[in-house]
Amino acid sequence: MSENVKINRGLKGVYFERSGVSDIDGAKGELSYRGYSIHDLATHSTFEEVCYLLIYGELPTAGQLADFDADLKAARVLPDEIHAIIRACKDGHPMDVLRTCVSALAALEPASQQVGEEAFLANGVRLTSQVPMIIAAHEAIRNGRDPVAPDMTLGHAANWLWMLKEEKPSADAARLADVDFILHAEHGSNASSFAARVTVGTEANLHGAIVTALSTLAGPAHGGAAEDVMKMVHEIGTPDKAAVYVKAKRAAKEAVTGFGHRVYRKEDPRARHMREGVRKLGEEMGAPEWYEILQAVVEAMSPYARHGLNVNVDFYSGVIYQLHGIPMDLYVPIFAIGRMPGWVIQCIEQQRGNILIRPLTLYNGPELRGYVPIADR
Ligand SMILES: CC(=O)SCCNC(=O)CCNC(=O)[C@H](O)C(C)(C)COP(=O)(O)OP(=O)(O)OC[C@H]1O[C@@H](n2cnc3c(N)ncnc32)[C@H](O)[C@@H]1OP(=O)(O)O
Ligand SMILES: O=C([O-])CC(=O)C(=O)O
Question: Structure pTM?
Fold first, then answer.
């Protein structure tokens, strides 16, 4: 019987649930949130508006957006204990510190333990505001500074940059961060969102699911790619060395980071906006060489594009962060800031008509055998 079982390793191509949040057409290279093209949202919307759209299903009216924005701003508060925890583990990777703090918030805030849609919504809004605060506070503390208080006059992206650098960002820098968050906000059944759903499937609370999601995002095959791309760009050094680098990687059968995707066979539609951001920012800052190295890698990888191997969202984002002077180990945490609304709404969706997620593994270990006492082994 076991020979006839079809195993879908990595759950490739398996549908496990319906979702009304985002739609990916991998063959065409298209992505939409709640029926709105990612290109329209990246061009016209703000992260707050996209959060509202993802969570409530419709674009907000001006009044709804103002109320939602006020809720996000009111949630810009961290218990003192979180700063103490950050001080205790300040030398850790920011992703480990972030995950530890989200986990600690579950123990420090009684409301975080509640389940049910209303609790998930309230906790989701609170965490969406607290996640950037934790990352910025850690960056301050590990550099011997005090955490920067949030600026309630600034939107989500601009306030994040303010707390990170204690400098008011230019309108262009704030908009670039805003677009980055919009592009990272949601992406179907990616590994971290799926993992969060598995946690909610056991009727656990939202904080627990976000801890699961953060753990899963951290790996280089998922959210860690932007950091690896930046390391690759440094290793390549100049555009003329890109072809040799790619050839060596292909010969060693190693992945060229920032390329490839489980679903897209055309270019990841989010990459277009990031590419334009890198090009423009590099020119403005008198540092066009980063864009040139990236484009030389794309050129060297072009023979594989027809096999569906194209750049993904994280190919360009690292250079943008580098041009803003953001340390490499903050790249995955930045992804997490953007992904918060996607995780929250998928947890809420999972909870509606919840079902335990529990697939099967086909046993291929030893036959049933007699127990041997330890003295006889
Ligand atoms: C936000 C995100 O999470 S986007 C993804 C970020 N991750 C990266 O950029 C890391 C580099 N990319 C990868 O490791 C992979 O493309 C993944 C993990 C993203 C997707 O992997 P999978 O869907 O399992 O694709 P899979 O591994 O089956 O690859 C299919 C083929 O393309 C090749 N391939 C996939 N990605 C790459 C790559 N980046 N470079 C070179 N070859 C690649 C594989 O070797 C495989 O070739 P084969 O059929 O000859 O064995
Ligand atoms: O969908 C995926 O597998 C990974 C991805 O691009 C994302 O999470 O944004």
Answer: 0.96
